[in-house]
Design brief:
44% helix, 163 residues, 2 domains, OB fold (Dihydrolipoamide Acetyltransferase, E2P), single chain, 5-stranded antiparallel beta sheet, alpha+beta, 5 strands
């Protein structure tokens, strides 16, 4: 095998490996964001244990916020706990938006949670909030970056080969 074929193949292999790793590590968010209406799920009564507003500084110094809500629920007599408010596990610069979740999900409040029928440990309070756009941008970036890198690598080696 010639070296340019090997380098192009290696870059393509690395790109698909990274894409596979991304898909596996974000499987629940991807499934919840895109396929939750298709997933067999059950609605259960849950009780909010606690809620608070987490804060952190962004790289440019602005404040970022995220509502953190923990809740418990029972399925077939077995008690479970979850910290998954929604499928969009990102920080937000909109203080009022995130605070509205903390104000609504007060400790002791009875709420409806949505759980996977086949995996009772995976349960959210707000399945309507998801990371579809964020996931699309991540995938688009990876395709452009790795596709471009592979293409440039191939073009470079193809241009340097001797007849």
């Amino acid at each position: 095998m010639n070296s340019e074929g090997f380098d192009f193949g290696l870059m393509t292999f690395i790109a698909f490996g990274m894409l596979f790793f991304y898909l596996i590590s974000n499987f629940d968010d991807i499934e919840g964001s895109y396929f939750f209406p298709l997933v067999e799920k059950i609605e259960v009564e849950a009780v909010v244990i606690s809620s608070n507003l987490a804060r952190k500084k962004s790289k440019n110094g602005s404040e970022l916020y995220k509502a953190e809500v923990s809740f418990s629920y029972k399925i077939k007599g077995e008690k479970y706990f979850s910290y998954q408010l929604d499928f969009y596990d990102k920080w937000n610069d909109d203080y009022e938006y995130e605070k509205s979740f903390v104000d609504y999900y007060i400790s002791g409040r009875k709420v409806t949670a949505f759980c996977k029928a086949r995996d009772h440990k995976y349960c959210v309070l707000r399945p309507d909030i998801n990371s579809k756009i964020s996931i699309l941008f991540d995938l688009l970036f990876m395709i452009i970056f790795f596709g471009g890198t592979s293409l440039l690598s191939y073009k470079y080696y193809a241009g340097t080969r001797k007849p």
